[in-house]
Amino acid sequence: MDNLSFRAEFHRALDPLAPPAPWLAAAVREEQQRRRRKMGPVARGARRLAQPSWLLPAVAALLALAIILAIVVGARVLLLNQTVPVKPPQHGLAGPAGCPGWGKNSQRGQGPASDRMTSRSVGWVNGALRTTDGGANWQQEEPDAMLSDAPRGTDPAAYPPGYVDYFLDSNHAWLAYGYPSTGSCFDHVTVVSTSDGGQSWRRSHPVNAAIQADSFLGLQLFFIDPQHGWLMVLGSGRLAPDWFVYTTFNGGIDWQLLQQMPLGSSWCSLEFISLEVGFLGGCQNSSGPSPELTVTRDGGRTWNAVSLPALAGSQQFTVLNPVFFNKDQGVIHISTQVFHDNTSTQSDFLDATDDGGQTWRALPALSIPGYAQSFGFTDPSHFFVLVTDGKGSNSSVYRTADGGRTWSSGGVLPALFQNYPAIMFVDAQHGFVDEPSQQIGASPVAFYQTNDGGRTWKDMHPHLS
Amino acid sequence: MVVHPASLALVQAAKQGDESAFELLLEPLLGQGYRLACAMLHDHHAAEDAVQEAAFKAWLKVSQLREGSEMRPWFLGIVANQCRSARRSRWWSVVRTNEPEQARAPAEDAVLEGVELRRALRSMDPAKRLVLVLHWYLDLPLEEIAAVAGTTVHAAESRLLRATQELKRRMEVSGGQP
Fold it and tell me: How far is Cα B117 from Cα B101, in angstroms, rounded to an integer?
């Protein structure tokens, strides 16, 4: 490679690290003026005074002498009095006795998986594992700083209590977890973020979680762009469980408490479609005459329930996360359970909105043999669903190209899934099926890729690099 | 090293405490300082902080700027020092430096271009990384590289040569283009 090409390679590699900052000069000027004002005229004047050339060496010599004297005197005191206590260095705190410790078990059983393919080749799964080859090789990108918070002797492969992650795109990811003080299991929450695919990470200012949790900490993250995000904190223990909603405007460095929500211990997750409008989806075990979706129209300060179309004969339903294709059009999956004697059957319904979630209409009943394990939505027309008959047959894929009016059979996956699989499509042709591990930081149990809209599937044989 | 008279007059005024002269000298250098800090820290937020801090230190120390010295290498030297300090304070800014080099398949995303070079660069000694960034990224002449790195021109030249060879070797090992 010649010098010119090598120089160009440097620019290709380093330019993405230095996004344009046209405001930098003004920001520096303003900060400098602020600091100079703070210094005051006396200090500024003192800076300009000509100092005698012998003053600095003389001061340095005096300081050196003082340090030597302090060392000599200190050593004599220590030698004479061996009982002087020495405070041991502090590493990570474990918190009071009985606090949940670090571990590998995922919280995904209590909430939606964070796993996400952000392009045909790049994606993330729970534990900050990242792939760049479509799901075959997975590499751990979690920050070293997280491990430095661990109590002494913690398994290096373990994750902190309450650990949760959110992946916005190929480069932007956030991790959140709680850490204890000597008197509280979850004193604060930390959010760690990357904007370069995990090569470097930045830690937030501590989020004072304002909770008295001592048995459980649940966290949820959502970002609408690299700067704006929301954090939900659920603590349970001595006090009644409550959700606390925080927001950030600077990429997760600072967090401001927005609202305390009496949601009980329901496990919901955030979904925002603009800085103002957001939803609480995935709430489990909702029940009532018709399913409801909780919505905010003021950025998370106040929340209200919006009724979805009634479902005849349903006894219990779970309203999953809405998916929006733009600020108006979206679709939501409602899973219902109808109980007969000692058994229950699952049915699945889709509702759609054309006005940003203010009103919802039921889509035609799904014509699929069995029940839905996971939906994938790419645009208002193309939906995919992973279907199982619940009797031990392999899962199969059904697809619609007309917004859910008609469904046709796609391919059959060459595997039986033990865990909850997820189907994800990055466009109408390219998609993935992910069977996540129950452990954080482990590669998916199974991972399949399709390049023909779900007709054929290739086993990626996922493994940790 | 070429010292422009206009710049020299501004330096003299800044040393006398003229804030406007100092700002006139500093502002054209902020962009390069920011790019240097980004390349050293791989974190543009931390880079902004480093440039802010370096600008304030430059204001405090401008009276120490030696007669005939150029402002650019002097300021970039302060930025480089600030980056070293920022890297030491890992509580706040976490930059992975000792990550094992593992080959990644070529990625389709445009932002992933140059990932091998970035990884190879991050794994190198900061002193070598500094001369590489100054030469290949900021296009500084050897005299200024030597001034920023606080060494002689001859030493800077041989450090740059060795660092470039090492970088290319590391890129070959990790599967990227040399």
Answer: 11
